[in-house]
Write a structure and sequence with these properties.
The structure is a homodimer. By secondary structure, chain A is an alpha/beta fold. Chain A has one domain: 3-Layer(aba) Sandwich (Carbamate kinase). Chain A contains nine helices and 15 strands. In chain A, a hairpin with a 2-residue loop joins strand 4 and strand 5. The longest helix of chain A is centred in the middle third of the chain and has 27 residues. The N terminus of chain A is likely disordered. The interface between A and B is large, with 61 and 61 residues.
């Protein structure tokens, strides 16, 4: 972890703890993807509870709710505890996708294709930001209710810009400061200004890669609505879960586990129909770019025992445990030969 | 305007239009101050309509709604117009206060006094941000529904920090870029990190002064729930509206209009009971600091003919019109002697 520590030290003169984990909360995992702007409340709550459990240093810590706002007209609830115990290792960043928020507005207007000066695109830019920030606020609130000190950080509001859809400017020093202060930044895919095409959509997956490069977390977890990466669409009954993928220095990847001689490297992968920012293919490419840095990436299903183990960093440093269901993507250098 | 133009040019190599106006939308004007987290929908809608009217270059422009999200479970409404006319001079910034949002959470936990590592303060920091960003989202949506291309920009997410409550770091280049792209940034009072006391509340009034110094708008408008600054509490039937105040180079201010020999400089001023960031006194001090720069400041009541004239910049460059009710605060150099 020496490399990680030295990177974080540049953010602040005091020695901060190294970043433990960046979590990508897939839009498909916490929204109802076929119902416009509908949160899957059960899954979201389960995620927040698991994140809190992964952060907890002791098992007895009482949850101190931090959402003191009205919920659907209800009264505000504040715990009576004046100074509750707070025993969480909060050194996490959450980045979420849009799911059934934002995509409709973005694709209806073509925000990702640019041309902000066209009235329809400008309206779509505004409408997309309204939709994704609505989701962001709900996720921040759900985390706060579980006692996770979450703070919404919109990429657009952070001044992040792209150049032909690639990140051009994305200072993360304020994210480092928030982490150092014991807050959990919650970012999201967002509509942003683009230097060449005026505007575009910056996806959560691209944000994850950028933050991983800057902040060098111990591990990265992608939570989605399937167990991981399969050799064919997971709806196919013969689909095989790829448990471990190694990425070499050139970014090429190969399947380590299971050992399947007949498998081509080019596995068939599913892309959600409404996903304008790329589906599983983008995810593997972004995950591979992170693994190349020597950072383990775990892709698994939200709200399962497997996601809790991944969030806790218990999937292991050498070989992936047999009873863990998910896909680990890691640098070829760190993969122990079978 | 030469000074203003040269200042804005530093933001972008292309020559941007000078900033026309920064509007402070007082929390008291758009929330029900005695009802926790309750928006005054009528006043908010009226403000959005007036801002749009002040921006309109032609009177026939059709409103193209830009909020394509569900409102309380309703269906999403998108106008069928493929490429509507868009004839607005959008060169405005909106900064709003918190009103009945945020203040309760901040004062319950003492966020403005610092000490973020205390669990109660940390919870209050999170809760305050949830409350004020909820209000911000609603204001952005209300503006978007009136066809104003609004984008929420949280000071905390922008990485703005304070040092013992004064602004320490607050880069506004991304706000200049948003303006240049024809978007209307909507900022708000926020909980932020403080270099000396860990955290505090950055008020909307302080944000206004900072942005005015950086971006040199033609004029600044403070919209509140009373007509302007009075010589005593406006609930007093003998209260006299101070229509014009001059500020000298040292920041001292004197009442120009009406000419009232008996008036001391130290007018009695009202402060709303729940306002943790300072009331009318702070407002006058911040307004005076802006006026010193040669920028006219108009304080008036939201949702009136007077606020519309102020937003349009029609209050005049020399003497304030007799039929305009409000308080103009301007540099002594620019005040024509009566």
């Amino acid at each position: 972890m020496a490399e990680s520590e030295s990177s974080n030290q540049t953010l602040k003169s005091e020695k901060p703890k190294p970043l433990r984990c960046i979590v990508k909360l897939g839009g498909a995992a916490i929204t109802c993807k076929n119902e416009l702007e509908t949160i899957n409340g059960t899954n979201l709550r389960l995620f927040c509870q698991q994140l809190r459990e992964a952060m907890a240093r002791s098992s007895v810590a009482k949850v101190f709710g931090m959402d003191w706002s009205r919920v659907s007209g209800d009264q505000i609830v504040i715990d009576d505890v004046e100074e509750p115990a707070f025993d969480l290792d909060t050194n996490f960043i959450v980045v979420h996708g849009a799911g059934s928020f934002g995509h409709f507005q973005a694709s209806r207007s073509g925000v990702h294709k640019g041309g902000l000066q066209r009235p329809l695109v400008k309206a779509g830019f505004v409408a997309t930001r309204i939709s994704v920030t609505t989701l962001n606020l709900e996720i921040v609130r759900a985390l706060a209710r579980e006692g996770v000190p979450s703070v919404g950080v919109s990429p657009f509001a952070s001044g992040w810009t792209t150049r032909r859809r690639n990140i051009a400017s994305a200072d993360a020093s304020h994210i480092g400061e928030a982490l150092h202060a014991g807050l959990v930044p919650v970012l999201h895919g967002d509509a942003v200004l683009d230097n060449l095409q005026e505007c575009t959509i910056l996806s959560g997956d691209v944000i994850i890669r950028h933050l991983a490069q800057l902040l060098l977390p111990e591990y990265v977890v992608f939570l989605t609505d399937v167990l991981g990466v399969y050799d064919r669409p997971p709806t196919d009954t013969n689909a095989i879960l790829l448990k471990e993928i190694a990425v070499d220095e050139d970014g090429n990847w190969s399947i380590i586990k299971p050992l399947l001689g007949h498998l081509k490297k080019e596995v068939e992968i599913t892309v959600a129909a409404h996903d304008t920012t790329g589906g599983m293919e983008t995810k593997i490419a972004e995950a591979a770019a992170i693994a190349k840095l020597g950072i383990d990436v775990y892709i698994t299903k939200a709200g399962t025992v497997h996601s809790l183990r991944a969030l806790k960093g218990e999937v292991g440093n050498s070989s992936v445990p047999d009873d863990w269901l998910g896909t680990a993507i890691r640098s070829a250098k760190q993969v122990r030969p079978l």
